From TrEMBL, chain A:
InterPro entries (UniProt xref): 2Fe-2S_ferredoxin-like_sf (IPR036010), 2Fe2S_fd_BS (IPR006058), 4Fe4S_Fe-S-bd (IPR017896), Beta-grasp_dom_sf (IPR012675), Helical_ferredxn (IPR009051), SDH/FRD_Iron-Sulfur (IPR050573), Succ_DH/fum_Rdtase_N (IPR025192)
Cofactor: [3Fe-4S] cluster; [2Fe-2S] cluster
Domain 4Fe-4S ferredoxin-type, first and last residues per copy: 150-179
UniProt superkingdom: Bacteria
Family according to the record: Belongs to the succinate dehydrogenase/fumarate reductase iron-sulfur protein family.
Gene Ontology process terms (BP): aerobic respiration; respiratory electron transport chain
Protein name as catalogued: Succinate dehydrogenase/fumarate reductase iron-sulfur subunit
Family matches, as Gene3D superfamilies: 3.10.20.30, Alpha-helical ferredoxin
One Pfam family recorded for the sequence: Fer4_8
From TrEMBL, chain B:
GO molecular function: electron transfer activity; flavin adenine dinucleotide binding; succinate dehydrogenase (quinone) activity
Segments forming domain FAD-dependent oxidoreductase 2 FAD-binding: 35-440
Cofactor: FAD
Gene Ontology biological-process annotations: anaerobic respiration
Active site: R329
Organism of origin: Flavivirga rizhaonensis
Localization terms from the record: Cell membrane
EC number: 1.3.5.1
Pfam families noted in UniProt: FAD_binding_2, Succ_DH_flav_C
Name by which UniProt lists this protein: succinate dehydrogenase
Catalytic activity line of the entry: a quinone + succinate = fumarate + a quinol
Gene Ontology CC, one term: plasma membrane
Keywords: Cell membrane, Electron transport, FAD, Flavoprotein, Membrane, Oxidoreductase, Transport
C-alpha cells in the first residue's frame, strides 16, 4: 500500500518546527505503524537525509514510551491503544497521515516527534511510593486485602505513564495519570499512612509542572491504553478535599 | 583460576555464613562512597534504591526517557516464591531442586539455593511496597502454576506482573531521588567502562539528546543492563535492549559465561513479514489453561474450529503426559519446532501452532478465563485482529531470555574487581534453561537483597584508596577510542542501512544458533558473521551527526557489539559438544529426540576471556554436593 506521511520535523528544542511530507510506497497492511516509520527512516538514510526521531521501546503496549499524535488523535484512530499496537490495516491505501508530537506545555519537544515527559516522573517523586526501606517488611499474608480492593488498586496501578491522557485533553491536564497513582496506593492498607500527604503533594506538583485543570470532558479515558476510568479523578478530588479540610 | 567464592558450611547456612564474615562499613563512611548503576530495570532500580537507602551515593544511568520504561516491565506471568501458601508440598528445597533441574544441572548449587531461600521475603517486600498482587476472596495472596514445576508458587498481578514490580522499584528510585541520595541520568547510554589498576572506576556515557560524551567516576560499577536476545533481531525484547555495556566490559577483561545459552520462548506471536521488528510474547501463564495442538493432517486448511477433536494432535500432552502443556520452555519450543519442521505448522507462513482455550472456557466459564487473562486476550486482538475467545491463538517460538552473561562469583562480582553484574546480564542461577517466573525473581533478589549485602565486602577495602580523577589518562584513552569509533561509523557513508545488517545477523543467528545447533552450521555461521562484520565496517551508512539526538548512530553502535557477540555465541555453542537445557546440539540427542548431556566432559560453566578478537576458554567446574545430576525428564 501507499501512504503519504505528513510529519512534524523539528531540529531541537530551541528551533521552530514544520510539517514535511513523505510518500512511502511499499508498505503492507500487516506492518505496525512504527514499522512503517522504520521503513521510511531506512529510505531516508538511503537518500542521505537525517532520520525522523520518534519514541518506542517495548513495542508491545506496556512500556509507555511510544507517543504519537496521529490524524488528530493520541495513539491514532483507535481508542484505548498504544501507538506501537497500531497497524497499517487501520489506514486506507493512498491516505495522507498526519503525525505530530504530543502538544502540552509540560511536554516540551526535544526533537521531531520526541518529547520530554519528565514532568510525570516529578509528580511521582512527590509521593508516588510507600516510604519503607528494603528489609523491613512483615509477612505478606499478615495484612489481608480483600479481592475487590486489590482489584481496584490494580485497575489504577495499570497506568503505563504514556501521557496520552494529557495529549488528548483540551486543558492538557494530567489528572488521570496523577489520580491513578494516588488511588492505587491510597486504597491499599500499606499506603494509608501517607495517604493525605501523598495526595496533597502529588496534586500540587501536577499544577506546578504546568498541567491544566480537569474539566471532566472524559476525553482521557477514551485514549487511555489501560482503560483507566475518569472516576479516579473524582476520587482524587474527594481525597484532596478531605486531606485539606481534616488533616 | 576462577574462584566462585562459595562460602563454607551446609547449603542452608552458606548465605548466613557469608554475611557474618563479610566486611561492614559504618554509616559515616558509606556517605563517602559512590556507586554507578547502569540500567533502571528491576535489578538496576532495585539495587540503586536499596544502596541509596544504605547511605551510598548512587548514580543510575538508562537510555530510556524514564526509569519506568525498562524492559522488566514487559514480563507478564509472575514471580516464583517458596511460600507454600497452597499447602501443596512446596519448600525452599523443592524450589532449589526444580530450578537446578530446570537449568539442566549447569548452575551452581549454592547460588540456586540462595535464590530459593530469599524468594519468600521478597514477596513480603513487594507487598509492603504496594504491589497489588492477585488475591483470594478471603484476602490472602493467590498463586498459579508455571512451566517445569508441579506446585503453585507463582505470584502475579494479572498479566502485568513485571510492570507492577518495576513500577514499585521505579517509585522507590524516585523516593531516593527526592532524598537526594540518587542522581538519575535518563537518556544516557554507557559506551565504555574505565578500568584503572585492574579495578572498575568509572564509565563514559553518551547523552543521547546532545550527543555529548561524559565521564563519571565511582568506587564501584554495577551493570544491570538486561538480556541480549536482540542479537537475533527478532525477539521478545524491547527494540533498545542491547549488549553494549556488558560487551565493552568483556573487552576490558570481564569473562563472558555461557554466551550461547539463550531461551527460545514457546508462546510468542509468529512472524508475518520481513519488515517485522518484534515478536510479541504471550505469557506462559496461558499454558495453565490453554492447550497446545496442531492438526494431525499435514497442511490441513479447514477452519480451525471445524477440525474435530480426534484430528487434533495435542503433542505436548502426548509426549510429556506428566507435565503436558506446562513442560519447560526449552522443551515446549523444541516440540513446536519439530511439528512445524515436519510440515504440521499452521497460519499464514505455516510457522505457528495453536493455543486453544475452548476446553478451559467450557470447564471454568468465560468469566473466570476473562478474569485471569483478559489483558492478554485484548493484546492479542489488537495485534492480530483475532478474538481468541472464539478461535485458538496462533503462537510460535521466539528468542527471549539470555541465561548467559558476564561470569559472576557468589558476590555477583565479575572477573574485574569492583565491577558487578546483576539481573539478566549475568550468568548465575538459571543454568542452561530458565524456569518461567524465575526471571523477575532473580532480577529482584540480585538487586534488593544480594548486591547490597556483598558490595560492602569490596568497598570496605577501597575506603583508604584515592579515587581517580576524571582527568586520569585512562579516561582520556577510553574516550579517544569511543570518539574514533563514532567518527568511523559516520564517515563510512556506504550503501547499506544499519537495519539491513541487523536483519542479516538475525537470520544467521536464528538459523544456526537458536533452538537446534550443529557443528557444520556453527562453523559456517562464524565465517558468515565475520564476513558480515567486514561488510558492516566497509558499507554501513549512518546519516546525521554525533552532536545531536541520532537514533541511527545509537543503533549502529549497538549493532557493532552484537556482531562481535554473535561470533562468541557461535564459538561457545560449537565448543560445547553436548545438549543441555536450551542448548540443543543435534549430534547429542536420544533416540526420541531429547537432549543428551555429557556430564563427564561438560559439567562446567564456560567462561570466555576476550583476547584481541579471539576468545580463551576458562572452566568453572560444577560440584554437585546435594543433588545428583539426573536425566532431566518431564515425561
Amino acid at each position: 500500500m501507499k501512504v503519504t506521511f505528513k510529519i512534524w520535523r523539528q531540529e531541537n528544542a530551541k528551533t521552530k518546527g514544520d510539517f514535511k511530507s513523505y510518500e512511502v510506497y511499499d508498505l503492507t497492511k500487516d506492518m505496525s505503524f512504527l514499522e512503517a516509520l522504520d521503513h521510511l527512516n531506512e529510505l531516508l538514510v538511503e537518500r542521505d537525509e537525517k532520520t525522523i526521531a520518534f519514541e518506542y521501546d517495548c513495542r508491545e503496549g506496556i512500556c509507555g514510551q511510544c507517543c504519537l499524535f496521529i490524524n488528530g488523535r493520541a495513539h491514532g484512530p483507535h481508542s484505548n491503544m498504544t501507538t506501537c499496537q497500531l497497524h497499517m490495516r487501520s489506514f486506507k491505501d493512498g491516505e495522507t497521515i498526519v503525525v505530530e508530537p504530543w502538544r502540552a506545555t509540560a511536554f516540551p519537544v526535544i526533537k521531531d516527534l520526541v518529547i520530554d515527559r519528565s514532568s510525570l516522573d516529578r509528580i511521582i517523586e512527590q509521593g508516588g511510593y510507600i516510604n519503607a526501606k528494603t528489609g523491613t517488611a512483615p509477612e505478606a499474608n499478615a495484612i489481608l486485602i480483600s479481592k475487590s480492593i486489590a482489584d481496584k488498586a490494580m485497575d489504577a496501578a495499570a497506568c503505563i505513564g504514556c501521557g496520552a491522557c494529557v495529549a488528548t485533553c483540551k486543558n492538557s491536564s494530567a489528572a488521570l495519570f496523577t489520580s491513578a497513582k494516588i488511588n492505587h496506593l491510597n486504597s491499599l492498607p500499606q499506603g494509608h499512612q501517607e495517604a493525605s500527604t501523598r495526595v496533597l503533594k502529588m496534586a500540587r506538583q501536577m499544577e506546578l509542572e504546568g498541567f491544566g485543570s480537569c474539566t471532566f470532558t472524559g476525553a482521557c479515558e477514551v485514549e487511555c491504553p489501560e482503560h483507566i476510568s475518569i472516576i479516579n479523578i473524582a476520587e482524587m478530588n474527594v481525597r484532596r478535599l478531605k486531606a485539606k479540610w481534616f488533616e | 583460576m576462577l574462584d566462585s567464592k562459595i562460602p563454607e558450611g551446609p547449603i542452608e547456612n552458606k548465605w548466613l555464613n557469608y554475611q557474618i564474615k563479610a566486611k561492614l562499613i559504618n554509616p559515616a563512611n558509606k556517605k563517602a562512597l559512590s556507586i554507578i548503576v547502569v540500567g533502571s530495570g528491576l535489578s538496576g532500580a532495585g539495587s540503586a534504591a536499596t544502596l541509596a537507602e544504605l547511605g551510598y551515593h548512587v548514580k543510575c544511568f538508562y537510555y530510556q526517557d524514564s526509569a519506568r520504561r525498562a524492559h522488566s516491565i514487559a514480563a507478564q506471568g509472575g514471580i516464583n516464591a517458596a511460600k507454600n501458601y497452597q499447602h501443596d508440598g512446596d519448600s525452599v528445597w523443592r524450589m532449589f531442586y526444580d530450578t537446578l533441574k530446570g537449568g539442566d544441572f549447569r548452575s551452581r548449587e549454592a547460588n540456586v539455593y540462595r535464590l530459593a531461600e530469599l524468594s519468600a521475603p521478597l514477596i513480603d517486600h513487594f507487598v509492603q511496597q504496594g504491589v497489588p498482587f492477585a488475591r483470594e476472596y478471603g484476602g490472602v495472596l493467590a498463586n498459579r502454576s508455571f512451566g517445569g514445576v508441579q506446585v503453585q508458587r507463582t505470584f502475579y498481578t494479572r498479566g502485568q506482573t513485571g510492570q507492577q514490580l518495576l513500577l514499585a522499584a521505579y517509585s522507590q528510585l524516585y523516593k531516593m531521588k527526592k532524598a537526594k541520595k540518587v542522581e538519575l541520568f535518563p537518556r544516557h547510554e554507557m559506551l565504555d567502562l574505565v578500568v584503572i589498576d585492574g579495578k572498575a572506576k568509572g564509565i563514559i556515557a553518551r547523552n543521547l539528546v546532545t550527543g555529548q560524551l561524559k565521564r563519571f567516576v565511582a568506587d564501584a560499577v554495577v551493570l544491570a543492563t538486561g538480556g541480549y536476545s536482540r542479537v537475533f533481531r527478532l525477539s521478545t525484547l524491547a527494540i533498545g535492549c542491547n549488549a553494549s555495556a556488558i560487551w565493552k566490559a568483556h573487552k576490558r577483561g570481564a569473562y563472558f559465561a555461557a554466551p550461547s545459552f539463550t531461551q527460545i520462548h514457546p508462546t510468542a506471536l509468529p512472524q508475518t513479514s520481513e519488515a517485522q521488528s518484534k515478536l510479541t510474547l504471550m505469557s506462559e501463564s496461558l499454558r495453565n489453561d490453554g492447550r497446545i495442538w496442531v492438526p494431525k493432517k499435514k497442511g490441513d486448511n479447514r477452519n480451525t474450529n471445524d477440525i474435530p477433536e480426534e484430528e487434533r494432535d495435542y503433542y505436548l500432552e502426548r509426549r510429556y503426559p506428566n507435565f503436558g502443556n506446562l513442560a519447560p520452555r526449552d522443551i515446549a519450543s523444541r516440540a513446536a519446532k519439530e511439528r512445524i519442521d515436519k510440515g504440521y505448522g499452521v497460519g499464514q507462513l505455516k510457522n505457528a501452532v495453536y493455543l486453544d482455550f475452548r476446553h478451559a472456557i467450557k470447564q471454568f466459564g468465560m468469566h473466570t478465563i476473562k478474569d485471569r487473562y483478559s489483558n492478554l486476550f485484548e493484546m492479542y486482538k489488537k495485534i492480530t485482529g483475532v478474538d481468541a475467545y472464539q478461535e485458538p491463538m496462533q503462537i510460535s517460538p521466539a528468542a527471549h531470555f539470555s541465561m548467559g552473561g558476564l561470569w559472576v562469583d557468589y558476590e555477583l562480582m565479575t572477573t574485574i574487581q569492583g565491577l558487578y553484574a546483576i539481573g539478566e546480564c549475568n550468568f548465575s542461577d538459571h543454568g542452561a534453561n530458565r524456569l518461567g517466573a524465575n526471571s523477575l525473581l532473580q532480577a529482584s533478589i540480585d538487586g534488593y537483597f544480594i548486591l547490597p549485602n556483598t558490595i560492602n565486602n569490596y568497598l570496605a577495602n577501597t575506603l583508604n584508596e584515592m579515587r581517580p580523577t576524571l582527568e586520569h589518562p585512562e579516561f582520556d584513552n577510553v574516550q579517544k577510542e569511543i570518539e574514533q569509533q563514532i567518527a568511523k561509523l559516520l564517515s563510512i557513508n556506504g550503501n547499506k542501512t544499519v537495519d539491513h545488517f541487523h536483519r542479516e545477523l538475525g537470520k544467521i543467528m536464528w538459523q544456526e544458533c537458536a533452538m537446534s545447533r550443529n557443528k557444520q552450521g556453527l562453523e559456517k555461521a562464524i565465517v558468515q558473521i565475520k564476513d558480515l562484520k567486514r561488510d558492516f565496517w566497509k558499507n554501513v551508512k549512518v546519516t546525521g551527526s554525533d552532536k545531536e539526538m541520532n537514533t541511527e548512530l545509537e543503533k549502529a553502535l549497538r549493532l557493532a557489539d552484537f556482531i562481535e557477540l554473535g561470533i562468541l555465541m557461535c564459538t561457545d555453542a560449537l565448543q560445547r559438544e553436548e545438549s543441555c537445557g536450551a542448548h540443543f546440539r543435534e549430534e547429542y540427542q536420544t533416540k526420541d529426540g531429547e537432549a543428551m548431556r555429557v556430564d563427564h566432559r561438560f559439567s562446567y560453566v564456560s567462561a570466555w576471556e576476550y583476547n584481541n578478537g579471539n576468545f580463551k576458554l576458562h572452566k568453572e567446574q560444577l560440584e554437585f554436593e546435594y543433588v545428583k545430576p539426573s536425566v532431566r525428564s518431564y515425561k
